Amino acid sequence: xxxxxxxxxxxxxxxxxxxxxxxxxxxxxxxxxxxxxxxxxxxxxxxxxxxxxxxxxxxxxxxxxxxxxxxxxxxxxxxxxxxxxxxxxxxxxxxxxxxxxxxxxxxxxxxxxxxxxxxxxxxxxxxxxxxxxxxxxxxxxxxxxxxxxxxxxxxxxxxxxxxxxxxxxxxxxxxxxxxxxxxxxxxxxxxxxxxxxxxxxxxxxxxxxxxxxxxxxxxxxxxxxxxxxxxxxxxxxxxxxxxxxxxxxxxxxxxxxxxxxxxxxxxxxxxxxxxxxxxxxxxxxxxxxxxxxxxxxxxxxxxxxxxxxxxxxxxxxxxxxxxxxxxxxxxxxxxxxxxxxxxxxxxxxxxxxxxxxxxxxxxxxxxxxxxxxxxxxxxxxxxxxxxxxxxxxxxxxxxxxxxxxxxxxxxxxxxxxxxxxxxxxxxxxxxxxxxxxxxxxxxxxxxxxxxxxxxxxxxxxxxxxxxxxxxxxxxxxxxxxxxxxxxxxxxxxxxxxxxxxxxxxxxxxxxxxxxxxxxxxxxxxxxxxxxxxxxxxxxxxxxxxxxxxxxxxxxxxx
Length: 558
Ligand SMILES: NC(=O)c1ccc[n+]([C@@H]2O[C@H](COP(=O)([O-])OP(=O)(O)OC[C@H]3O[C@@H](n4cnc5c(N)ncnc54)[C@H](O)[C@@H]3O)[C@@H](O)[C@H]2O)c1
What we know:
The protein folds into two domains: 2-279, Rossmann fold (3-Layer(aba) Sandwich); 379-556, 3-Layer(aba) Sandwich (Rossmann fold). Helices cover 42% and strands 12% of the residues. The chain is built from 21 helices and 17 strands. Helix 3 (65-75) crosses helix 5 (117-129), helix 6 (172-184) runs parallel beside helix 7 (201-216) and helix 10 crosses helix 12 (344-357). It is globular and about 85 Å long. Bound molecules: nicotinamide-adenine-dinucleotide (NAD). Nicotinamide-adenine-dinucleotide is lined by residues 61-67, 91-93, 98, 151-154, 173, 176-177, 195-196, 230, 232, 234, 342-343.
């Protein structure tokens, strides 16, 4: 496909084509008008051959973090006789930002970096060995589908820092996808929305779009539209979190419901992880939003107790361990420096927004969910205060300090930096005049900083909430810990990455070369290590670690 595309391009007299650049820097010219007919002919031929072998054709729309792996999970599905049952066409719009994912997948290469080795292996196997997965840019692929799976993004964009209520659901990608799908699909095709959406979206936004488009095509049957949300977790069990995990689903009518149950039973491990089937899509959409709002709320709940602990000599780490012994309280979790990831900062917002903008209510029933998100979104700002205070105790103003941040991602042992608390720590410290450098063993590019003019969306970088952010475009995350430590005035332990749990105070001290401030945001240091840092002349502070003062008194007793 690429050869054809680039050969055609080099003979074309039209202006230079646009180019998509992969994260590794490889350049892929976007397809031009005359490429589309060839591409669709190629897919028609492939689909006809696969159908003749008894396989259903599944088109997955949106090849992002979720869609690319879901596409491969479906392409890998087998029946009881061990025969592949689906041929999957991954469909991705050919934008300069995303087109590169298509040629990479067609080479058998995963478009994203994952800590789960099964991601690379699964995509390679389906594309190159079993030939059950291809990727394309042409929406005409939808004409070939028995099933369409929608995995495009639905963002919740916030206007203010720490006020989720003034934000809004950005439905543009989802609405555009639904219109495209409805223009092309066969009326018998099942359309399954997996995107996390505002409750009400499937029945009140997507279904009407499809009905209208069907009417324009003079089709009188009801669209077979269903909803089943993803519970995928970045990390070492990424594939299993899609394939070997419980699912909730529902359909807009009985036939859609039966079709989605059949499809999910064929492609996921529902024998070990049975499906929950709900009556209406609004219930399955609400289940997803409640699931993530609940998690956001129990995390936010401990923010005030974390401050209480710091001010009153309490080690929250030990308190949480003590409380968790009760089986009814075993999911109490320490919140770390803010709650990031793609889902928890936005999903409750989708629910609050839907109440007003989809269902039309004008009163305000939400007290806990928005407040939990606001607390989580701003919790990390307190880290900058701890850095400032620790440095002040050492006689050094933060404005002349070299601060090393350990951990840029939102969660331990993953390279995903989306909405991480670390981003705000860097921004706040930079505003206060500190020079910040960052280390993360899993992150090569911190796009939120490097590409802050356009990422995550033009005009929506968190840079706009802080002063003096321009130079952060030049911040590059290093993987060389020893070099990063050298000469640091303050070290912020921001993420529980495995290598940070093992750090030995004496070795760190040798690498830094002098006493420094160390700020533990995630209960990484035990009392032995805290005491050792103090003995070495370092200043130690930690979120929720109010007992450090006591340890200091113990070792400094004459
Ligand atoms: N990433 C996670 O950890 C996670 C976990 C659970 C649920 N989810 C949900 O899954 C959904 C997808 O998330 P993601 O992380 O894969 O997002 P993503 O941004 O990585 O991927 C979305 C993809 O869809 C493509 N796209 C957008 N509009 C399109 C169109 N009209 N036609 C074809 N392609 C189009 C984009 O270019 C992109 O490649 C979201 O609703 C998210 O909330 C994500």
